[in-house]
Every structure is written in structure tokens, then in C-alpha cells.
Description:
This protein has two helices and five strands. By secondary structure, it is of the alpha+beta class. The radius of gyration is 14 Å and the shape is globular.
Amino acid sequence: MYKKYPKPVECKSQSGIEIIIIKEFCKGCGICVEFCPKNVLALGSDFKVNVANIDACNGDKLCELRCPDYAIFIKKQKKSKES
């Protein structure tokens, strides 16, 4: 009856930044790739966004903010307070 939600692709850096891509939502426009100042993202042979260099990600969310299809999300690991 109901369509299942698309399964996202998740990549996590050593610094705790996580990139989540929903490939079914991506139309391959490349806007996220162009706005990434660290060249973290690339378009694959399927013309969908891929993570090319996860450890270069600074978590600025420019890709997430510019994506017209809501296909990419950035999560930062919360810093824990040491008591």
C-alpha cells in the first residue's frame, strides 16, 4: 500500500561529521558539488552525488543548504562537556 522511504547512503568522518545522501531524491544537478569549498562531493557515473573525500568535510552545510531536492544532509557530532 505505502511506498517505503528510500534508503539513505551514510558516510561518517573521523571527526564525527556525518553526510547522509538520499540518492532517489538527487537529480544530479551538481549544485552541492560546486558549492563545497573542500571538494568533499563529486558526481558519480550515475550522475548522482557521491562522497569523494569525507575527511575533508568541515561541516559547513553549504551542500545541504543549496540542494534544491533535499537529497543531502549533514550531521555534526555534539561536543560533550567534560565535568
